[in-house]
Amino acid sequence: MDGANHSVVSEFVFLGLTNSWEIQLLLFVFTSMFYIASMMGNSLIMLTVTSDPHLHSPMYFLLANLYFIDLGVSSVTSPKMIYDLFRKRKVTSFGACIAEIFFIHIIGGVEMVLLTAMAFDRYVAICKPLHYLTIMSPRLCISFLVAAWVTSLIHSMVQLAFVVNLPFCGPNVLDSFYCDLPRFIKLACIDTDQLESMVTANSGLSSIASFIILIISYIVIILTVQKHSSAGSSKVLSTLSAHIAVVVLAFGPLIFV
Q1: Which of 18, 34, 84, 110 could form an SS bridge with 152, CB 3.0 to 4.6 Å?
Q2: pTM of this prediction?
């Protein structure tokens, strides 16, 4: 086939999570509860941070933006998945599938950069407390945010550049409940082995690199504190525990997938 887009597939069919009515009902209850709790919790935290002048600091600025991104993370796939639980034929259009892939990658990229920026914020606060406000200036915080969105936009557009013109002329069934990029590529009417490797490398290397940077930052913080005070390491660990938990919960499934 030539380079033109010969796609004749106008929609994709999801196999979903299960065909059992009982399990679908259970999934509907739990996913709806978690989605509503996520939306309300993240919105409440954002409202608290923006309305309380005492929380207008670099740490809470980054946190508020992280919770804003979490709203997007929850909303990209969850509503469609909950809606599809009670549909006999779970379908999505070609354009909607491309849009979902785009937003999944851009939101995931922003979250990774923000978590890395928050690790740097904790490093400066713990290891250079006297220079904290000088280093973590509003200008630097805005730069972190702009860098997060720009790099993530580039990453997502690169991913789409690999797949947007692929020819889809036959199979249109995705063994998933959302538009998963590797499964999406496999449906193309050409040999996609090299393309799959490039897509995996693009996403995998960026997520693993960010995760390694975060781990290194934690090690540096703990070693720096131990040099000055062995008793202070436990306090630092308790300070970092929440951030470490978020990083593990975010990057663990991402790297596994």
Answers
A1: 110
A2: 0.82
The tens-digit pLDDT sequence of the chain (257 residues) is: 444 445 577 888 888 777 788 888 898 999 999 999 999 999 999 999 999 888 888 988 998 999 899 898 888 888 988 888 888 888 888 889 889 989 988 998 898 889 889 888 888 888 888 888 899 999 999 999 999 999 999 888 888 887 877 888 878 888 888 888 888 888 888 887 888 887 777 777 777 888 888 888 888 877 777 776 555 566 666 667 777 787 788 777 777 77
